[in-house]
Structure formats: structure tokens, C-alpha cells
């Protein structure tokens, strides 16, 4: 992976400033495309100017376009510290496309991102963010391993897997209730 093309958030507390501040430590061939709604006074032109051609805001994507775009990226970055962050669906979409994730050790994210499929960093730390991106960019074997891990992780979140788990739980509960009668 000689260059790194990354997909990132468009919402400020999902890490825009962390990404922009990390530019001074990121390898020069790393580029990050931001998607999503802009809030809190951010403007596309300002973000693109501050991104120095390496961080680009590209707008809002609908679900179909997210699926199409994920094939074009080496990793998904989500250096979030959003207080309402749950389980971002885009992470599961990235896994389904065999795309590793760099995210923060924030709220529920460590439940779905671990070292088998991504890299976790501390929230609000642009140096740690740059280090994680640079490690992934420089480590072809690490990148390949995380790609494999992300695809494995996607299977854990598949509808079929969850349905089978639910049916097994129902069968266990039903047999326990029947045994107690």
C-alpha cells in the first residue's frame, strides 16, 4: 500500500479537527476524503483549503453511494468523540467491504473495533491518529491482516448470523421453560 486513501467523517465531533491537525505528522502520500453533513459552521471550501489538497470534503453520500465508494478506500477513519456515538453502521459496511478501521477508544466503539480488524486510538489525539494511519500505510502485512480480519468481523454482524443466534436463544429458552413444567 504505497499511498493511503482514507474515508473519514464530515461531522466535527467525529474528528475533523483531529484529522486536519494530524496533517503535519501524516506521510505526504496519505489523502483523506470526508463525507457526511457539515455542522457547527464548517464550510466545504474552508475544509478543503485547510486540508491542503490531502483532506477533501466530498459531500453527503446516500446508502448506495457509500457501498460503491468503500471499494475505493484503503481504510475507514473515525476519530470520533461524539457524545451520542453508538455503533456506526459505516464501520460494519467497511467490514463488509474488507476495509480496516481506525477509530477511537470511545464509548461503544471498542466493542466492534479491535486489533483483528482495526486500530484504536485515544480520542482527540492527532499524533496518535497520524501514527495509526502511518503504521497502516507502511505495514502492508498489517493492512492485509486487518483486511482479512474486517471481513471475518463482518460475518459476526451479518443478518444470517444474528438470526441464527436469536433462534438458538429462543430454542434454549423454550426448552428451559418446558423442562421446568
Topology (elements, then pairings):
Layout: E1 4-9, H1 16-22, E2 30-35, H2 44-50, E3 55-57, H3 63-70, E4 75-78, H4 89-96, E5 101-104, H5 109-112, E6 118-121, H6 126-138, H7 140-156, H8 159-179
Parallel strand pairs: 1-2, 1-4, 2-3, 4-5, 5-6
Helix pairs in contact: 1-6, 4-7
Describe the protein in words.
By secondary structure, the chain is an alpha/beta fold. It has a single domain, classed as Glycogen Phosphorylase B (Rossmann fold). It is built from eight helices and six strands. The chain has helices at 16-22, 44-50, 63-70, 89-96, 109-112, 126-138, 140-156, 159-179; strands at residues 4-9, 30-35, 55-57, 75-78, 101-104, 118-121. It has a six-stranded parallel sheet with strand order 3-2-1-4-5-6, sandwiched between helices. Helix 1 (16-22) crosses helix 6 and helix 4 (89-96) packs across helix 7. The longest helix is centred in the C-terminal third of the chain and has 21 residues, at 159-179. It is elongated, with a radius of gyration of 18 Å.
What's a quick, concise take on this entry?
This protein has 8 helices and 6 strands.
CATH fold label: Rossmann fold
Provide the gyration radius in Å: 18 Å
Q: Could you say which structural class the secondary elements and strand pairing correspond to?
A: alpha/beta
Strand order, sheet with most strands: 3-2-1-4-5-6
Which word captures the global form?
Answer: elongated
Main sheet: strands, sense, barrel: 6 strands, parallel
Class in CATH? Answer: Alpha Beta
Amino acid at each position: 500500500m504505497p499511498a493511503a486513501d482514507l474515508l473519514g467523517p464530515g461531522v466535527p465531533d467525529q474528528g475533523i479537527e483531529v484529522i486536519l491537525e494530524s496533517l503535519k505528522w501524516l506521510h505526504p502520500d496519505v489523502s483523506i476524503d470526508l463525507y457526511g453533513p457539515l455542522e457547527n459552521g464548517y464550510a466545504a471550501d474552508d475544509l478543503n483549503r485547510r486540508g491542503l489538497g490531502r483532506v477533501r470534503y466530498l459531500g453527503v453520500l446516500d446508502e448506495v453511494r457509500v457501498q460503491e465508494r468503500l471499494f475505493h478506500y484503503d481504510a475507514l477513519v473515525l476519530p470520533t468523540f461524539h457524545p451520542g456515538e453508538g455503533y456506526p453502521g459505516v464501520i460494519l459496511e467497511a467490514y463488509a467491504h474488507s476495509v480496516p478501521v481506525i477509530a477511537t477508544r470511545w464509548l461503544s466503539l471498542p466493542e466492534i473495533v479491535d486489533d483483528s480488524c482495526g486500530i484504536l486510538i485515544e480520542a482527540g489525539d492527532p499524533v496518535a491518529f497520524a501514527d495509526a494511519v502511518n503504521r497502516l500505510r507502511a505495514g502492508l502485512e498489517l493492512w492485509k491482516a486487518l483486511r482479512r480480519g474486517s471481513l471475518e468481523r463482518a460475518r459476526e454482524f451479518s443478518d444470517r448470523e444474528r438470526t441464527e443466534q436469536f433462534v438458538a436463544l429462543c430454542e434454549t429458552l423454550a426448552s428451559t421453560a418446558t423442562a421446568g413444567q
